[in-house]
Amino acid sequence: MSDKCCEKLKKEPLRRKAKELGMECVILGILASESYQREKDWLENGCNVFFKFKDNQCKPLSFWTEGDILEYIEKYNVKVSDLYNMGYKRNGCMYCGFGVHLEDPESNRYKKLKETHPIQYSYFISNFGGLMIECDVAV
Q: Could you give the domains of the chain?
């Protein structure tokens, strides 16, 4: 698994659409604490990065903690996705395999997908099950 899938299916189409719409900056709701690379980027560049990468970026939540987010949700009564009530910690591409090898094979994201979204799981297995076996990922 690699970040190439995310680049091809998410980032590149978003860049094209932003260019088409004349948008000059993307606003990303990511936390520096979500990964080593995000923390490193935040420490080096801060929350607003302009004219340095493929797109200008504003990341206002970079320095927030999980606790800050939970407090904000409660204080302002923000509606959150039902996925969080199903035990998901994040909600990106439901088939994303990036980092799945670091998860417990008995309870990884694909096992959870099988429980919560059986139709989507069946589609995934029909189309990518062989690749998952080839990559030694428990599905």
A: 8-79 (3.40.50.620), 80-133 (no CATH)
